[in-house]
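STRUCTURE:
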């Protein structure tokens, strides 16, 4: 009897623990339905913009903001954050001087707050807590670079590709900071494999973005030409030339 009582006691304790855990989870999920106001860090990326002649150097920031939203939205932002992308043309900057006397620039927080209010939709950005956000800028330059194909053609049996894959345009003019353009040798297309090709085909392929580089187009046209071929075996006589008389 004592063994049976001990077994039942342990079973009751286990049931109570399970019930308590379920109750706690349900209570927590219910609390996430309420609206809260708290301070959370937002990951903000200030990007180069086609509408601006000035580019940004190292535009990744972690900015403390006071936000208001449901518990679910705040939970996702805290434990599964995603960066907010802001074009540099959507903010204003102001000069300031540090103790070392070097002139620098900072982001005008009111313009950044307006941009965040538009981009962050699952919760309300009430204010920016970070006191000063320094930004380093430089003029944008241009450079003409080739388009590098990453298109692979796999023709059907008894077909062969004629020439190489044609791209239109073959070169584009990009904009970025001088330090970036100095090392940029070309813009690659996305990887694309064309299988079982038996006719001439054409289409568009997307370009691969490069961080900090402004592309004038997002895709280019391509053309692939193929033709059928036949494989046969021939036996042909071979006759040597310029050899001594009598040798074959």
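SEQUENCE:
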């Amino acid at each position: 009897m004592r063994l049976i009582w001990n077994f039942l006691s342990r079973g009751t304790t286990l049931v109570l623990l399970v019930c308590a855990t379920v109750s706690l989870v349900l209570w927590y999920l219910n609390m996430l339905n309420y609206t809260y106001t708290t301070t959370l860090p937002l990951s903000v990326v200030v990007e180069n913009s086609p509408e601006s002649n000035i580019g940004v150097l190292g535009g990744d920031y972690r900015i403390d903001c006071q936000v208001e939203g449901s518990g679910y939205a705040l939970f996702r932002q805290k434990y599964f954050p995603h960066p907010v992308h802001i074009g540099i043309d959507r903010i204003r900057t102001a000069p300031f001087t540090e103790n070392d006397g070097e002139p620098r620039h900072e982001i005008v927080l009111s313009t950044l707050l307006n941009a965040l209010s538009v981009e962050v939709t699952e919760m309300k950005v009430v204010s920016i807590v970070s006191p000063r956000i320094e930004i380093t800028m430089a003029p944008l330059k241009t450079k003409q670079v080739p388009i590098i194909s990453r298109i692979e053609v796999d023709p059907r049996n008894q077909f062969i590709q004629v020439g190489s894959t044609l791209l239109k345009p073959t070169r584009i003019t990009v904009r970025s900071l001088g330090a970036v353009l100095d090392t940029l040798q070309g813009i690659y297309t996305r990887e694309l494999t064309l299988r079982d090709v038996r006719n001439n085909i054409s289409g568009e392929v997307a370009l691969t973005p490069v961080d900090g580089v402004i592309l004038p187009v997002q895709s280019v046209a391509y053309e692939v030409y193929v033709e059928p071929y036949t494989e046969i075996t021939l036996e042909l006589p071979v006759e040597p030339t310029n050899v001594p008389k009598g040798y074959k």
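REMARK: The mean pLDDT is 85.
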